[in-house]
Design a protein that fits this description.
This protein is mainly alpha-helical. The chain has 15 helices and no strands. Helix 3 (29-51) packs antiparallel against helix 4 (55-71), helix 9 packs antiparallel against helix 12 (197-218) and helix 12 packs antiparallel against helix 13.
Length: 282
């Protein structure tokens, strides 16, 4: 494994937002390797869903990842992230089925038809979010009681991230907004790719829907990984900005972090550490 390549993937993921860089400081070096690599690995899977222009190309890339997740637990990893990740005890203790499940769910999601409304959109995305949340919970917390909170947070984070990637999705002929919302504002998928008053209104309505769902989810009980907890806080702030901004996409993409965000990240780190398995540092 190339240490520089592995570190580059971690740095790229960590540097994408200030809250990740702050949260990173609360992890031990061994946790950074395992938990950081898991987050960066998931990012690679999500990039395939959101950025691959041709469905056939995306399916082939996800197929490669499914094979990689079958090989990696057997010591046959080829990618720098999986090589580093499966050298850690936490990752190697998780059954292989939990590693392949998110990739297989992503392949199904890739071919899903456009959702008619928000409820249908959530139903389509639930298997992928459930598989990701199950994997994360096992790696971060070990064998703990299942909770509905983590899958719901994961699903809403996926929908919010898809909204941020609106133009990229439209270029691939897909919409992060459900079809009824496009119809309500007289939009087509192609028209969604260009700024307009109708697009701003549709995005604002969708952001408000996500914000309401996220507010309810934040009050649920159950363990969240540190990265999920800070993403939840970030999304709540960002969606609030989107609903108030003249240009909601700009508000969604650039919420302030500052001292308030720093304190929230510190509290999330304390909460996670109180629930994390007790381990001796290496």
């Amino acid at each position: 494994m190339s240490d520089s390549a592995f570190d580059d993937y971690l740095a790229q993921w960590r540097g994408a937002s200030p809250e990740r860089s702050v949260a990173w400081r609360f992890l031990r070096s061994d946790e950074r390797v395992c938990l950081g690599a898991l987050a960066a690995l998931e990012h690679e899977w999500l990039k395939v869903l959101r950025e691959a222009r041709e469905p056939q190309v995306a399916a082939a890339r996800l197929g490669w990842w499914r094979e990689e997740m079958q090989r990696a637990p057997q010591g046959q990893a080829r990618h720098p992230l999986t090589q580093g990740l499966f050298a850690t005890p936490r990752a190697s203790a998780v059954p292989v089925a939990h590693w392949t499940a998110p990739v297989e769910a992503a392949m199904v999601l890739l071919m899903a038809p456009p959702p008619a409304d928000f409820a249908a959109q959530c139903k389509i995305g639930e298997p992928f979010a459930d598989a990701l949340a199950e994997l994360e919970t096992r790696v971060w917390f070990g064998d703990v009681a299942p909770s509905q909170r983590a899958p719901k947070v994961t699903l809403l984070a996926h929908l919010a991230a898809s909204l941020r990637a609106l133009e990229s999705m439209v270029e691939r002929g897909r919409s992060p907004l459900p079809m009824n919302l496009l119809a309500r504002h007289g939009l087509t998928i192609d028209a969604l790719g260009s700024d307009s008053l109708a697009r701003r209104a549709a995005v604002r309505d969708y952001a408000a829907e996500l914000q309401r769902e996220l507010a309810g989810t934040a009050r649920m009980q159950g363990p969240l990984t540190l990265f999920r907890a800070i993403a939840l806080q970030h999304d709540q702030d960002a969606l609030g900005c989107a609903t108030r901004a003249d240009e909601p996409l700009a508000g969604l993409r650039s919420p302030a972090f500052g001292l308030r965000g720093l304190l929230k990240t510190w509290r999330a780190a304390r909460t996670w550490r109180s629930m994390a398995p007790i381990e001796s540092p290496p």
